[in-house]
Amino acid sequence: MLRRRNLLTTILIALPWALLLTLWHQYPTTHYLSLLRKETDENVTSKAFLNGTSALREGGLPSCIRQQQSTGATPRVIQSYVYSRPPPWSDTLPTIFVITPTYTRPVQKAELTRLANTFLHVQNLHWVVVEDSPRRTNLVSNLLEKAGLNFTHLNVETPKSLKLGLSWIPSHTPRGTLQRNLGLHWLRDSFSNTAPPEGVVYFADDDNTYSLELFEEMRYTRRVSVWPVAFVGGLRYESPKVSPAGKVVGWKTVFDPNRPFAIDMAGFAISIKLILEKPQASFKLEGVKGGYQETSLLKDLVTMDGLEPKAANCTKVLVWHTRTERPTLVNEGKRGFTDPRVEV
Amino acid sequence: MRVKLKNVFIVYFVVSLVGLLCALLQLGQPCDCSQQLQAERRRGRDRLLAEQWNGGVRGEPRAQGGGQALPTIYVVTPTYARPVQKAELVRLSQTLLHVRALHWVVVEDAAAPTALVAGLLANSGVPFTHLHVETPPESRRRPGDPPWLHPRGVEQRNRALRWLRDTRAPGESGVVYFADDDNTYSLRLFEEMRSTRGVSVWPVGLVGGLRFERPLVAGGRVVGFHTGWKPERPFPLDMAGFAVALPLLLARPEARFDPRAERGYLESSLLGALVSPAQLEPKAGNCTQVLVWHTRTEKPKLRQEEQLQREGRGSDPHIEV
C-alpha cells in the first residue's frame, strides 16, 4: 500500500512538469526555432531547383507575387521578394528607394548585373530603374525579373533636342534628368503625403560603386543626409565640410565650392517624407550650369544647416564615382561579326 | 475543510490536472501565434543583420548554407595599387559573397600585403587567402609603355597556383577561375563552372574588339573559336572565359602561365599544358549565353588632386579611398 501511494505521489508530482513541457512546446520562440530549421531546408532545395533550370525563364517561383498586368504605359511593380537571395522584407526597417537612370549601350547589361549583385545584399531595397528609351527593353525587363529584387521598371525618352543640348554650351546638357524626375513622380503617385512610408530616396547611377555600409548609413535619414564621394571634381574625393558640432558648414571641393550644394548625385539621400511634402521639387532641365544639377533639386528641399552628415561626420568614403570604359568594338566591322541575337 | 497539507496537495494536483487537460485539448487546434511568430522572426533577423553590420566581420556568410558536398570554386584575383583598387575589389566582393562554397585568392602585386586589401578582405565576408608577389622590374610597365606591352598579373596568378599546389590535397574537388578585378560576373557563371571536370569554357562579352568572343560548339564539343583577333592562337580565349578543375592542376604541377608569352598567348601558355582544344567542356548553354563581361574601368581624372598635392594641400591621406 505504501508503494502504491508513493507511485501515485510521484505521478501527481510529475504532472505539472508535463503540463509545463506541453505549454513550452507551443510557446512562439521555440516554435519559431523549429520552423526556422524547416525553412532553411526549404530554401536550400529551392536554390538547387533554380540552379538546375535552363537559361530560359525559370518557372516554379513562389506564388506570393502580386504583379500589375503590364501594358505599355503602367510601370511593372513587384511588391514581394521572389527569390531567396535578398534578405527578407522587414516591416520595421525604412525602405531605401534607389532611382537608377539607364540607357542602352554595350556595357548596360554588365553594369546593371553588378549593380543588382550589390543591391541583393541590402534589406528593404526597392530599385526604380528608369530607361532612357521609347519603350521598356526586353534586356532590362528580363534582367530585373531574374535578379530577384523588388523593382519598378519605368521609361521615358529624352527628346533629341535635349540630348544635343538646349543651350549652345555642350557641357550644360543634363543627363538622366528626365529619368530621375520620372522616378520622383512615381514615388509621389505611389505614396500619399498623409501616410508617408518610412524611407529614403537615393539616386544611384549604374556605373558607380557602392559599399554595403553606405545603405545602412542613409537608411535613417530624417531630411537630407550627405557624405563624401570618391573620384569627383578631379579629386580623390569631395566631401562636405563638417563643423565639430556635427553640422555641414561648407564643401571641400576645388570645382566651384561656392555652389549652394557642391555635392555629387551619389553623395546625398532624401527622406521620402520630404519628397512627398514638397511635390514641386524636381531636377531642373533648363538653365542648369555644369555642376548645379544637384543644387536645382536640393535648394527646394533643404538649406545647408539642415543637412545631416553621415559616414562618421564625413570622414569615410563609402561610394566611388567609377566610370566604365567604352569598349572598342573595332572588330565588329560594318555588318557585325557577332550574332546579333545573342544578348550582351 | 481544514487547511491540512494533504488537502493543499490534493488541490494543487487537481488544478494541475485540469490545466494539463486544457493544454492537451489545445494541442489539437491550430495555434494562432502566426503573427507573433512573424514578429519574432522579423525581430530576430533585424537583430542579426544589425549585428552583422555593426560587427563588421562576418563569421559564416549567408551564401554558404548547406554546401558541404559542393566543389569549392577558387577565384584567383591578381590586383595592384591604383586609385580605383578599393572600389573594384569592393564590388567584386559583393558579387562573390552570393556564391556558395567559394574561396577568394587575392594576390597583390606588392612587396608586402597592404592594409587596404587586408582590411577589405576581412570585412567582405568572403572566405579568402591574401597573398602577394611583386612583379620583377624588367616585366613592370614603365610610364609611357602601352598597357599591352607586358603581360600583367602573371607572377601573381602563378603564385596562386603555387599556393593551391602547396595547400590542397590531391583528391580534393574544386574549380579554379582567374577573375580580374575589373570584369563583371553574373551569379549564374559560378554555377555553370562548378561542374568542370577538366577545362570548361564559355563566351566572354566585350572583348577582342567584339561584342563577345565564344567557342564554337557542335555536338556538345568545342570545334573552333569565334574571335576577331589572332584566331590562330591555340586557345583564343580570354582569361575570364575558362575554368580549370583543381585535380587537373594538381596532376600537372608544371603547368603555369608563361611570363614571356607573346601578347594574347598567356591563356594558351597555361591551357596548352593541360588539355587539347577538343577536350574543352562547353558551358553556358553550349556557349550561347554571355555570363561574363570584360569591362574596364576608366582611370579617374585626378587633375585637381595632383595640383593640390604640388601645392602641398592634398587631400587627407589617412582617409582611405
Automatic annotation (TrEMBL), chain A:
Protein's membrane topology: Single-pass type II membrane protein
Matching PANTHER family: GALACTOSYLGALACTOSYLXYLOSYLPROTEIN 3-BETA-GLUCURONOSYLTRANSFERASE, GALACTOSYLGALACTOSYLXYLOSYLPROTEIN 3-BETA-GLUCURONOSYLTRANSFERASE BETA-1,3-GLUCURONYLTRANSFERASE
Active-site residues, record numbering mapped to chain: E294 (proton donor/acceptor)
Pfam family name, one: Glyco_transf_43
Cofactor dependence: Mn(2+)
Tagged with keyword Calcium: no
Protein name: Galactosylgalactosylxylosylprotein 3-beta-glucuronosyltransferase
Enzyme class: transferase
Sites where a glycan is attached: N313
Main location: membrane
Location within or outside the cell: Endomembrane system; Golgi apparatus membrane
Site (Interaction with galactose moiety of substrate glycoprotein): E238, N331
InterPro entries: Glyco_trans_43, Nucleotide-diphossugar_trans
Entry-linked CDD domains: GlcAT-I (cd00218)
Pathway linked to the protein: Protein modification; protein glycosylation
UniProt keyword terms in alphabetical order: Glycoprotein, Golgi apparatus, Manganese, Membrane, Metal-binding, Signal-anchor, Transferase, Transmembrane, Transmembrane helix
Amino acids binding Mn(2+): D207
Family according to the record: Belongs to the glycosyltransferase 43 family.
UniProt binding sites for UDP-alpha-D-glucuronate: P101, T102, Y103, D132, R175, R180, D205, D206, D207, H321, T322, R323
TrEMBL record, chain B:
Pfam assignment, any one: Glyco_transf_43
Known pathway: Protein modification; protein glycosylation
InterPro entries: Glyco_trans_43 (IPR005027), Nucleotide-diphossugar_trans (IPR029044)
Transmembrane regions listed in the UniProt entry: 7-28
Region of interest (Disordered), ranges: 133-152, 302-321
Compartments, record wording: Golgi apparatus membrane; Membrane
Catalytic residues of the enzyme: E267
Catalytic activity: 3-O-(beta-D-galactosyl-(1->3)-beta-D-galactosyl-(1->4)-beta-D-xylosyl)-L-seryl-[protein] + UDP-alpha-D-glucuronate = 3-O-(beta-D-GlcA-(1->3)-beta-D-Gal-(1->3)-beta-D-Gal-(1->4)-beta-D-Xyl)-L-seryl-[protein] + UDP + H(+)
EC number(s) stated in the UniProt entry for this protein: 2.4.1.135
Residues with site note (Interaction with galactose moiety of substrate glycoprotein): E213, Q304
Ion transport in keyword set: no
Keywords for the protein's UniProt record, in alphabetical order: Disulfide bond, Glycoprotein, Golgi apparatus, Manganese, Membrane, Metal-binding, Signal-anchor, Transferase, Transmembrane, Transmembrane helix
Bias type Basic and acidic residues, positions: 133-144
UniProt-listed GO biological process terms: carbohydrate metabolic process; chondroitin sulfate proteoglycan biosynthetic process; dermatan sulfate proteoglycan biosynthetic process; glycosaminoglycan biosynthetic process; heparan sulfate proteoglycan biosynthetic process; positive regulation of intracellular protein transport
Top-level enzyme category: transferase
Binding positions for UDP-alpha-D-glucuronate per the UniProt entry: P78, T79, Y80, D109, R152, R157, D180, D181, D182, H294, T295, R296
Binding-site residues for Mn(2+), renumbered to this chain: D182
GO cellular component, one term: Golgi membrane
Residues glycosylated per entry: N286
Bilayer topology annotation: Single-pass type II membrane protein
Annotated family: Belongs to the glycosyltransferase 43 family.
Full protein name: Galactosylgalactosylxylosylprotein 3-beta-glucuronosyltransferase
Organism (species): Strigops habroptila
